[in-house]
Amino acid sequence: xxxxxxxxxxxxxxxxxxxxxxxxxxxxxxxxxxxxxxxxxxxxxxxxxxxxxxxxxxxxxxxxxxxxxxxxxxxxxxxxxxxxxxxxxxxxxxxxxxxxxxxxxxxxxxxxxxxxxxxxxxxxxxxxxxxxxxxxxxxxxxxxxxxxxxxxxxxxxxxxxxxxxxxxxxxxxxxxxxxxxxxxxxxxxxxxxxxxxxxxxxxxxxxxxxxxxxxxxxxxxxxxxxxxxxxxxxxxxxxxxxxxxxxxxxxxxxxxxxxxxxxxxxxxxxxxxxxxxxxxxxxxxxxxxxxxxxxxxxx
Amino acid sequence: xxxxxxxxxxxxxxxxxxxxxxxxxxxxxxxxxxxxxxxxxxxxxxxxxxxxxxxxxxxxxxxxxxxxxxxxxxxxxxxxxxxxxxxxxxxxxxxxxxxxxxxxxxxxxxxxxxxxxxxxxxxxxxxxxxxxxxxxxxxxxxxxxxxxxxxxxxxxxxxxxxxxxxxxxxxxxxxxxxxxxxxxxxxxxxxxxxxxxxxxxxxxxxxxxxxxxxxxxxxxxxxxxxxxxxxxxxxxxxxxxxxxxxxxxxxxxxxxxxxxxxxxxxxxxxxxxxxxxxxxxxxxxxxxxxxxxxxxxxxxxxxxx
Lengths: 299, 305
Hints:
Chain A is α/β, with parallel strands linked by helices. Chain A has helices at about 10-15, 45-50, 95-100, 140-150, 200, 215-230, 290, and strands at about 20-35, 40-45, 55-60, 70-75, 80, 85-90, 110-115, 125-135, 155-160, 180-185, 190, 205-210, 235-240, 255-260, 270-275, 280. Chain A has 2 domains: about 20-115, Translation factors (Elongation Factor Tu (Ef-tu), domain 3), CATH 2.40.30.10; about 125-290, Rossmann fold (3-Layer(aba) Sandwich), CATH 3.40.50. Chain A is built from 7 helices and 16 strands. Chain A is globular, with a radius of gyration of 19 Å. Chain B is an alpha/beta fold. At the A-B interface, strand 14 of A face helix 1, strand 5, strand 6 and helix 8 of B.
């Protein structure tokens, strides 16, 4: 019977440390709008701010009432432990985010975090390329802070469908090695997708961090796997993915994501949980065709 | 306070307080152990456990609805061997009783799982899930009183553990199934499991969840429905009833006690309020003190005929 036991995702890629999570009453400090529906919401949450690492997320209980019912997961965008501030960058597209956009300074909510597994920070100094697709820039300001603090060279590839969806440049920390801007409609920066010439852009980089819509991440992962089959010369690629999430700490089993290990049958790969094994994974740990079949959030 | 806090669920199983956490909303308790939210929980009803490991359904598995959520997890679990060998050991040192929820698709499966768990240190009781809406099988034990009775009888023959049966509300007369399992030797019933529901995505002209699109609805949206089921069962049964359906506060739990529940389970609320069971316990105890309550069942309503 033991041979029938599916490989445990925990053994394959590890899991988040739930003992770090705290459920803190957070106070809204303000909402900064960036045109269209995009905004950054800042909270005073000193305990969580002191713990938050790049790529990890918090679950926000946007309303005490039953609508919307579930918490909403957002990656930390910025965190300043000295002032106890954490922020989240998002668009008002669903019930939860629309409610958050109406928050005023002084409004309070329960915030559970940090949750999930974040980005691996380099041991040895080098060059990191951060590739963002639209709102996928959300976790990068905090990642930039931590990378720059370690003396890492950081290149930011800021991509979006159009200018209004780009991460606002005036919010970027000083000290970036380079900033490359791409919009699909050419309304700002070079016209095209971040994936068009990504191999040229990552020449000489030691690691690549990508966050954006799952199809964009899948496209990058495809390029990586082709290289892997050929030269075997490409920097480590970590992606932050999305899945419809219930609890955020592994009990509802709602945010299943298909994993794939190099040696395994792609049709029978195990399912991991976005909230425990992710949201950040190495690109080759994911079964991208199966991942693309599912929606990315609760809506 | 002269309140008798504990509740006797039969065969010597006295849970320290009537507020448990529902199957499928608390895993096997280990996440809560890590997060420090096990305190004050009256009983843990585990994730549905089957004879063999199950990987569960392909995602997407959940959707949010008005004041509720739909799930179609598909009984993802490591199988009874892992539970009996590895998990139970850890439960044995916990102050909270752990009742293993058992699922299957044939009587033989249920019997084998229950037999395996009997006599295992750390397993305080069994809750038969005869009503999982999310796995396909030929026989639906939960909707056929005679079949439900045969299943309980078969399990009763192999175990002396306290035996609860979790009933599905997706039947015309829930009391018929309740009576059948009581007659077959169940020590109590849990009412209710999720309601069959569906959410549609108009842009895709299809349900949000895959397969046939149906899934189990839980959360505050089902509370009045579950309340009515508990009240009806109370009139029909004499064994303990564990009420469940949209409980997220002491007020909710107290309402279920009035309707006829001996104990309750907090379910979906565990997802958005980890540690909520402790708050429900505190609130119920406060109420008991203020109202000089001696036993929870003294709250019970008796309908006039």
